[in-house]
Amino acid sequence: MSRDRAEPSARFDPVTRVLHWVVAVAVIAQLLIAAVMVTSLFYQPLLIAIHKPLGLLILVVVIIRLINRLAHRTPAPLATMGRFERFAATASEFLMYGLLLLQPLVGWAVVSASGVPVVIFGNLMLPPIAPNDAVLYGLLERSHRLLAYALLAVFTAHLCAVLFHTLVLRDGLFSRIALWTRRRR
Q: With contact defined as beta carbons under 8 Å apart, do 66 and 97 qualify?
């Protein structure tokens, strides 16, 4: 095996890879939307209309991804990863899953506590999961914002680790989750 290529058997299964990239793209979009949403009153209604269903999509896909994760073994850790790095990778994976589940649920609760119907598309509404309460709304809104910062931090750390393995160690880590395979030279 070349140093910059993982063996096919060391790759995640195809469903895991697709779900990973759906969540990654949705989270990046959600973070960008949220950043613009809080700074632009003009675009805020449109962005909120996109933010809610995208959050629901993330919640559903992460639940599917967790079920898939439990049903499929993950590839063995790379030889380039020491014991601490393996622990950090596992801990960050659980933290990421927790944040990806908690963030949309707290967002749903924020809208519920505001008393505004949780409209997803047209007439499709979700039931409220929190009582209409101004104090609760403020607490949940701050929590949603802090969770977004935490998610951004964990996502950034994950991306930096992948870049380190891909560009510095060239140990094939990225090819394990990539949707495509690299041709041999």
A: yes
Query: For 171, which DSSP code?
Result: -
Environment class of 65 (CB within 10 Å of its CB; exposed 0-12, middle 13-18, buried 19+)? buried
Count CB neighbours of 60 within 10 A. Answer: 11
Which uninterrupted H or E stretch holds 112? Answer: helix 83-114
Q: Give the integer Cα–Cα distance in Å for 114 and 132.
A: 6
- 20-79: pLDDT as tens digits: 999 999 999 999 999 999 898 899 999 999 999 999 999 999 999 999 999 998 999 999
CB 34 within 8 A of CB 58: no
How far apart (Å, rounded) are the C-alpha atoms in residues 43 and 101? 26
Residue 120's H or E segment, with its range, is: strand 118-121
Tokens of 106: 């707290």
* pLDDT computed for residue 169 by the predictor: 94
> pLDDT for 138-147, tens place per residue?
999 999 999 9
Supply the angle between the helices 44-71 and 83-114 in degrees, to the nearest 10: 140
